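Appendix C reproduces, verbatim, an entry submitted by the partner laboratory led by Prof. M.T., so that reviewers can inspect both the input and the predicted structure.
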Amino acid sequence: MRPHMSKNIVFCADGTWNGPEKDDVGDDSSYNTNVLRLFSELDGDADTPDMFLRGEQEKIAKTKSGAVYQVSKYLHGVGDSNNWLEKIMGGVFGAGMVERIVRGYTFISRNYSPGDKIYLVGFSRGAYTVRALAGMIGKCGLLDATKYDLENNKEDAYRLGTSVWRSYREHSNVDSNLLDKIIADAPHFLHVDVDPNKMLYFVPIEVVAVWETVGSLGIPKYWDDARVDVYRFTDTSLGEHVKYGRQALAIDEMRQDFTPTYWDQRNNIVQVLFPGIHADIGGGYSSVNNGNGLSNAAYLWMRNELVNLGVKLQPENWVADFCGQIHCEWYKIKYPLAVRKLKMPISADMAIHNSAISRINYPDPLPVQDNKGQWTTQIYRPASLKSFFDSQWKALPNIFIV
């Protein structure tokens, strides 16, 4: 028997309203989120190119001899309405997130062999997806593809994955009423027994890499007129089975529903603050008038981190610009607003990116969208960073800059 050649498994989960919506933007790839950019630049050939417009795609990268060295999957935040699991779960309270977690889980299970490296990448709700997925893998392991036919029987794979998720959440400290509601609503035939002898346990994850994990999933769900976060993290720690954690965070986001979920301090966690709001960090704005100059900085930082951790990517030509536009989204919909409360940036687990320092030090006013949606220019003095700088806007001596 030939020895197994280890490979990379990359799962990319995008934000709910972000993805390849070419009807709106034509072929302008500058609108792409950072997750979609990353997937597009991953080594490998697409399995079915027409699937891309339905919000998902898989890639396989092979050596000249035909050995697979990297497989990857992109999943739009909304997902594919033609997918069997999404059709089944469509009316269930809180089902959208479950469906995306399960689909990431079955993709990884289908491809994983011991020795492979798993990379989880996400933005916004997609960041929430991959962080929950990492926790599920850490507590429950993966389905063993040598004992289950996950490739040819995807409906059974989804049933098994949903049952593993159910077991994972039952053993988590989640509001039991909400959990009971989700489980009661889920179609009964999705509940199948998982044989513990057909699982792979103690599966390591190389990195969870995210832009802007929002704790309330962006737009909170409402149930009995109460705001709820069905998938709330029971803690903010990154499991020891995950070697590295990387997160890019927005300095200027003010919507309280977009409050970020930080990781607790631990070795090999790096969280970095960038200028801009939610999508100025995770991407999605056009390059027109330098609309994506800031998100390019957050993208290139994360891309470099992933390359250093072994992800195989094609060359890129994105240009970061700290002078880029800072957008405003809360003039469109009335949100509760507040200045972000940021952790003290005094170590790698919470640091300020040099692009923010460069913008603060820049002598001229730079483009910013005001609360009425009008474009103006301002000297950059972010309220969320005020306590980390002196009266002349020089960083305090203990501030960590990357």
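The two ends are 47 Å apart (CA to CA). Additional entries are available on request from the coordinating office.
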